[in-house]
């Protein structure tokens, strides 16, 4: 059976291919590390227990330092020409800062497309605290940056965040499922305008809008999203 090839520009942002056995293990390890980090926050243990845990963590780090890293330049080189392997695609998506299950820093946030809407959900633990008991506003901004970036799944180009405006309307609680939604508003040459909302416990806590700038050429809707055209702005 021929292995499926992945193309960088066809990969939906923040969505994950089925893990290879290696990736499944990386995710498992990262979830353990994330759980350890969460457990460590205000851990009420004695000094001896912490010293023993530190020794175990040091031994684990040293054992992992015996391995090298797969080259991002090589991975991207294959993906850009449509010759990426599933492992290459996983290496790109699995370590996204907030959404990658193999990134020990991620809650993780899960992203998906629901028709013309980009959706995400996450539950943030103690390690993501800003005000007492609430999610840090910067973490929500980061999640919104990724969410709004994903409106580029509707277009043929990809670019970087130019402007991100965030309005915090109510505190967002920790340990509660938070849901995110975003939509593409319009295209204007190399600029893509999109907006987003965040909800927790049925209350809108954040509103955001952003402008993405394509790296080269004007943004164009993919044919399957041509209905997103409004008046004259969405080309
Ligand atoms: C679901 C998970 C998905 C994960 C996705 C990962 C998301 C990653 C998000 C990021 O972290 S991106 C990193 C943060 N962003 C940057 O670092 C961008 C830094 N800025 C730049 O590199 C350049 O300023 C930029 C590419 C944005 C624009 O430079 P250009 O020289 O290509 O643009 P130019 O000055 O020619 O302007 C082109 C148009 O864009 C407009 N523009 C430029 N910069 C803008 C800006 N910052 N905001 C809004 N509009 C901007 C500009 O007015 C103009 O409009 P008009 O065509 O109408 O005249």
TrEMBL record:
<keyword id="KW-0443">Lipid metabolism</keyword>
<comment type="similarity">
    <text>Belongs to the THEM4/THEM5 thioesterase family.</text>
</comment>
<keyword id="KW-1003">Cell membrane</keyword>
<keyword id="KW-0963">Cytoplasm</keyword>
<keyword id="KW-0472">Membrane</keyword>
<dbReference type="InterPro" id="IPR029069">
    <property type="entry name" value="HotDog_dom_sf"/>
</dbReference>
<keyword id="KW-0378">Hydrolase</keyword>
<keyword id="KW-0175">Coiled coil</keyword>
<dbReference type="InterPro" id="IPR006683">
    <property type="entry name" value="Thioestr_dom"/>
</dbReference>
<dbReference type="Pfam" id="PF03061">
    <property type="entry name" value="4HBT"/>
</dbReference>
<feature type="coiled-coil region">
    <location>
        <begin position="26"/>
        <end position="63"/>
    </location>
</feature>
<feature type="domain" description="Thioesterase">
    <location>
        <begin position="133"/>
        <end position="206"/>
    </location>
</feature>
<dbReference type="InterPro" id="IPR052365">
    <property type="entry name" value="THEM4/THEM5_acyl-CoA_thioest"/>
</dbReference>
<protein>
    <recommendedName>
        <fullName>Acyl-coenzyme A thioesterase THEM4</fullName>
        <ecNumber>3.1.2.2</ecNumber>
    </recommendedName>
</protein>
<keyword id="KW-0809">Transit peptide</keyword>
<keyword id="KW-0276">Fatty acid metabolism</keyword>
<keyword id="KW-0053">Apoptosis</keyword>
<keyword id="KW-0966">Cell projection</keyword>
